[in-house]
Amino acid sequence: MSIRRIGILTGGGDCPGLNAVIRAVVRKAVGHHGLEVLGIREGWLGLMTGDLTPLGLDDISGILPKGGTILRTSRTNPFKTEDGPRRVLETLATHRIDALIPVGGEDTLGVALKFAEQGVKLVGIPKTIDNDLDCTDYTFGFDTAVTTATDAIDRLHTTAESHHRVMVVEVMGRHAGWIATVAGIAGGADCILVPEVPFDIEEVCELVQRRKARGKDFSIVVVAEGAKPKDSKVQVTTTDKVDAFGHVRLGGIGTVVSEEIERRTGIETRVTILGHIQRGGSPTPFDRVLATRFGIKAVDMVLAGDFGKMVALQGNQIVAVPLADAVRRLKTLDMGLYDIAKVFFG
Ligand code: F6P
Fold first, then answer.
1. 43-59 residue pLDDT tens
2. Is 127 in the pocket of ligand 1 (CB under 6 A)?
3. Buried (b) or exposed (e) across 66-88, using 16+ Cβ within 10 A?
């Protein structure tokens, strides 16, 4: 079957680089191959409600450096509603969409896999600041989040030193410590707490005190939002509510760690929670280029009929991997990288 019309959607949490990927898909599909592209608004929700818009070359002009997504996004899971899957399939048929390009993280691409198994022709594109999708070395959005977090750590360093305080900085990343570790190494953190390694608060305090004893009367402690103390099974969250994919809203562990450090060491301690600042703003050149390469490869795969797969970065090559492999498990932190970070603790 020849491909005439492609649909594209962005789902899940937004991240810098989404507009770059939309631009690349439209430039390649419309500009080079004379195909039609339909933009689906708000992720899978747009396919349930029929909220689509044609995307031509004028629509994507100037969006490359912009954060967010011109298509908007949502954390909608069609499989959580009785008629969601049927409505999605109907919209695809009504709008004569020959192939779909869903851009998302584990949730959006997990839904994509289910539709691929039902015969929908699609090619997934991985995005997330968390960098926790398997089979790809990097997702776009991650480099920008790390750049923002590193800049914040640099700024906290100077004020920590002036006031001889401990500065705790909480970063995102959900159940993976990628942002914490990479930004922590780049920013010269004195301690990094990640979800993959439950921490002992007493050891953190000892480390801060050891630094003080050798004349360093300030410390930077980077805490991933999903970090957990050794002696507790409880995850610190901001609310009991879960989203359509069953995820709790993490956040607040930085405050707990900060209060404990001050109580146990007597050293004045402050906490900064970076939150969604890490998700906003203009993508770095690395993320713009990665998103662009992903978008171009996805269109190539659609035209080659290479469906049920995800584009991925492996080494310096953009390759195709089975979607099922990419969403089977989370890509948690590379412990070799964490070992490097640990050399600089204390
Ligand atoms: O998955 C991206 C991410 O930013 C996580 O790091 C974070 O836990 C979550 O999304 C926050 O989600 P929301 O935007 O729904 O608060």
1. 999 999 999 999 999 99
2. no
3. bbbbbbbbbbbbbbeeeebbebb
